[in-house]
Amino acid sequence: MKKYIAILKGINVGGHKKILMAELRDLLTKIEEIDKVKTYIQSGNIIFSASGDSEAKLAQLIQKKILEHYGFEVSTLVLSEENFAAIIKNNPYAEVDIKRLHCTFFKTEPILENRQKLETFDASPDVFTTAEDCVYICCETERYSKSNINNSVAEKLLKINCTTRNWKTCIKLLEMTKSL
């Protein structure tokens, strides 16, 4: 069994797409391929182990189960522990206070033309680095909500679904995989 991290987009925000984490854990354990489900905070961060399915297949299984149970779709991204650890390791802003760091994860790979649009976007005074499967964001202030580069901007330029987590959450998710 491999360890995985699933990140749900847009749940429990402003009273929309409400999902209780205890209920979600119980729901996901009903998926035959998934075991040892844990969640972190209310924004849809899930750690689990699973048999040899692909990340995309696991994301589809989770999305389908949520749709069947709650009646709404939730964009779901699944990364293996190894892939998530590589994202953490490759952070180009490792020396910066983590309160200023965020990571926007790509659900699918953007086409080159759209990636170039993002890479040439001026987010001053904030800075960012585009990687293969994410964007590392370093905010000039500690307020991501005021940043010129955010999830909406990334989605608009890349024309794909993305979801963002602060760096503290990213670190915690990776730590939690160790206890599975």
Automatic annotation (TrEMBL):
Source organism of this protein record: Zunongwangia mangrovi
Name of the protein: Uncharacterized conserved protein, DUF1697 family
Highest rank taxon of the organism: Bacteria
A Pfam family it matches: DUF1697
